[in-house]
Amino acid sequence: MISKQLTGIYQLLFDRFGPQHWWPGQTQFEIIAGAILTQNTNWANVEKAITNLKAADRLTHEKLHHLDVSQLAELIRPAGYYNIKAKRLKNFINWLFENYDGKLTNLENLDTDRLRAELLAITGVGRETADSILLYAFDRPIFVVDAYTARIAFRHQLIEPDADYERLRELFQSNLPQDTKLFNEYHALLVRVGKEFCRPKARCSGCPLEKLPHSLDIEYF
Ligand code: SF4
User: Fold this and answer.
1) Tens of pLDDT along 186-215?
2) Alpha carbon distance 184, 200 (integer Å)
3) Contacts of 191 (CB under 8 A, 6+ apart)
4) pLDDT tens readout for residues 108-118
């Protein structure tokens, strides 16, 4: 039942919006950096920070490894919370160099559970960031949950409104085929409908999901 609902939602979203071409990023490290920089800000600001890093010829983990954290903070200033994010980016890079010889390719040998656990142990890498890295940088079949996912799942009564991140992830991950491409596209489509329609004040009229049962009785966000 729930599998059918989730598949139906995906189909409606895909039919309306088409492929979203996520994650924007030319290299594996650019995707990882973007996943860390996008915390608590919009993508336009992340793009400015990425552009700065590219212009300074610093958008590789090898080059950033030698860069002072305060210089890195200056470069990523447009992303907001730049001092904190510079430390987080450095935390990831230091972990990579201390444990995996500074090579992203060495992470490819780790199974998904181990890699997820190690990413989550890095200070400043939360669940959404870790799962974005796993899905979009390493092509692992992990479903990324964010505030849009939660809001849509709650309003469409796919799960109880007190469900936490892991339960939401489990909802999608265990009721859909373990398909990285599907998870990639599905998350991007949820973000799209969340931004355009399923805002804190919902705009159900014209939403691709408006004909599906939903309730706005409880405001979750
Ligand atoms: S805007 Fe309305 S119809 Fe669209 S996803 Fe949100 S609750 Fe559902």
Assistant:
1) 999 999 999 999 999 999 999 999 999 999
2) 24
3) 20, 146, 148
4) 999 999 999 99
Instruction: Provide the 3-class DSSP secondary structure of residue 78.
Output: helix
- Half-sphere exposure (CA, 13 Å, Cβ side) for 45? 16
**Atom 7 of ligand 1, nearest CA residue:** 155
User: What distance, in Å, lies between the first and last C-alpha atoms of the chain?
Assistant: 27
| Model confidence pTM above 0.70 | yes
Q: Which residues of 57-79 are buried (b: 16+ CB within 10 A; e: fewer)?
A: ebbebeebeebeeeebbebbbbb
Which of 154, 203, 205, 207 is the best mutation target for the ligand 1 pocket, counting ligand atoms within 8 Å of the beta carbon and taking the most?
207
DSSP 207: -
Residue among 195, 203, 214, 218 whose CB has most ligand 1 atoms within 8 A, to mutate: 214
Q: How far apart are CA 200 and CA 133, in angstroms?
A: 27
137: its two tokens: 């940088």
User: Using an 8 Å Cβ cutoff, are 68 and 37 in contact?
Assistant: no
How far is residue 130 from each of residues 54, 138, 154, 200, 219, measured CA to CA in Å? 23, 11, 23, 25, 28
Cα separation, 190 vs 10, whole angstroms? 9
One-letter amino acid for residue 133 of the chain: I
